[in-house]
Amino acid sequence: MKARRNKKQVPSFRKLLKTSKVKLENKLKNKQFKQQSTLKKYRKEQRKLRQAVKDAVSKKPVPLEDPKEKQPGKRIEREEEEEEEALPLDMMDEDDLQLMKDLGQRASFLTRDISSSEPVHVKKRKHESVIDKYEKIPRTLQTAPEKELIHLLPIKDKSGIIPQTREKPVIDSNQDEEDQEEMEPEEGNEIIEKPIKELTLEEHLIERKKKLQERKMHIAALASAILSDPESNIKKLKELRSMLMEQDPDVAVTVRKLVIVSLMELFKDITPSYKIRPLTEAEKSTKIRKETQKLREFEEGLVSQYKFYLENLEQMIKDWKQRKLKKSNVVSLKAYKGLAEVAVKSLCELLVALPHFNFHNNIIVLIVPLMNDMSKLVSEMCCEAVKKLFKQDKLGQASLGVIKVISGYVKGRNYEVRPEMLKTFLCLRIKEIEVKKDTEDINKPKKFMTFKEKRKTLSRMQRKWKKAEEKLERELREAEASESTEKKLKLHTETLNIVFVTYFRILKKAQRSPLLPTVLEGLAKFAHLINVEFFDDLLVVLHSLIESGDLSYQESLHCVQTAFHILSGQGDVLNIDPMKFYTHLYKTLFKLHAGATNEGVETVLQCLDVMLTKRRKQVSQQRALAFIKRLCTLALHVLPNSSIGILATNRILMHTFPKTDLLLDNESQGSGVFLPELDEPEYCNAQNTALWELHALRRHYHPIVRRLAVHLIAGAPSEGSEALKPELSRRSAAELFEAYSMAAMTFNPPVESSNSKRKDKVLQGDSFLNEELNQLIKRHCSQVATPLPLDFTKCLETSLR
């Protein structure tokens, strides 16, 4: 009998009944064994008594036997013959028995086995109660094996209860063996007569297709039945889930994939829009209606099947990671990856579709480590699912759960993770967060008129209509059930705290990590939400990172962008001069070109917007002139979309700083010479140069670049023939950069096809040459060549003269 796995679990009545039956059988066997052992002892004693009587009557000494020379086979035969010849003791009188007892005691030495080391008195004590034991043993000795009895229900009559039993039929083992031996050759003959037909490859594929079609029809039937009436057919979910253990090796992998996807779509459709909680003891004990009971059974079944389904998906992913082949050997190791990818895809879909339902945190714990997986496909799927969840999460509850797990995972891996994990933070919807008092001012609850105000301003009929209107508004507000702004604000604040803690840890401990660009990009996005207390320390860290020289151009641009985002928000109150960041951006501009660094122009355009346009009051004219000149120079050696963005930025700067139009004149202003190599925008004397680059850009092959260059040469007018069209003037520089991108490796806008002019006459041969040249060629060709001696020295002398 196997021991119970869970000892705390109370066994059922059926188990108790089974256990008691086994115990009774064991007791019966023990009792039979004891009876047989007592009979053997009794026979041995009787044999010794007969031998003693025989020796005493014959009065002949029995020679002592050497135990080494004993022949056990002969001795056993002799003992059996003596037993047959001896009379049973039941036919003897009491006097004869007493005599035999006395003789047996006297002949203790003769009956003793010399090979035994036991003392004599032990056997005397042992044989003292032989007769008593003999009297207690039943007279009829059991020669045949005791038959097992089956206890039936008893019968009750006038005399009392009569127990009923029946003999259990005994199966003859010898006969069974003979039958089996007879059957074996017959089976062997059948196998020989009907060998297994070997299928060709084409037949095997047809058979597989047929099996697969049957499984598909079965899956479709179960799914349609569940969708038609989920509450009644919830038990069919279990039947469908059992197909995840398909054992046919021909279709096992395909069927399992189909079942995974089908169950995922079913759960997305039939899951309610609320979280199902377990019932309390009081709720279970109360009487409820049939409809409520049916709904409870549906919810319990749905939650349990959903849990088992998630466990199956988790096990598939673990099997793929561990790469261990199972005993069933139905699915090969190569197929594990395909199954795991389908399982991950289903988990990602459930993560996005059911953020409110049970076990959502368990799905998050499964998905987050897979975001850092070695497989690029799995990692991208998980990262995209998390980004999608962040974008659609309005309240912030699900986003907070994911951020907590990601932050703990990054810290546990000592910041050795993929940068894509932290790039998902950029999709958080936390731009709605503002200072608490500002949000209260913006979202003030609508104040209803008091009775006195109504009486003063409204008539009786108007008051009646106003009352009905206010009542309707209250009902609509309750029915809307929108989350309060305070709860949303609290969740977003907690989420941002975790994000900033992760960013600051990486800035402090892992400055050379590949995560640094992503951290700087995230800080640039959320910098306006950082507490003012951290501004000084953060700016010092950013400046030290730039001065270290270990950063790439992209990372340094993100540092500059972060610094100015900080200063443009709550940092206005701080008295900080960011001249060093202006200098660094001015120096970094010439690192960009039409090659791989062309994508960095977008970040430059964002930095210029924050640094020059939004901080126009803190920017000097010299600085603005230097940046306009360097940007025009940069526009000559970047791709067309970058040139368009740069020229659009220059247009905005010329409108923001009207005095910069002196760059369109070739006369110098003030003393000094322009120093283009100097990295200090304040001291490069940009007022003593002109924007000659615009004349080169006026002959650019891109039509939009040409149009913008002509517009800037004319002084960037807002009206007139040189003014820009609304489609160009109303867009920002970053939008124009994206609109005219050449990422698809095509001209944007496309080049107009030119109509080729066909020539009526095709010129051939002599028609290409002049008439005089033709005559000269004919005259030289007609002359006969005369052999003349070649004298190279003569020609050499004439050339030297």
TrEMBL record:
Residues 451-489 form a coiled coil. Residues 215-309 form the Nucleolar complex-associated protein 3 N-terminal domain. Pfam families: CBF (PF03914), NOC3p (PF07540). GO terms for molecular function: chromatin binding. The keyword Transmembrane does not apply. GO terms for cellular component: nucleolus. This is Nucleolar complex protein 3 homolog. It comes from Bos indicus (Zebu). The gene is NOC3L.
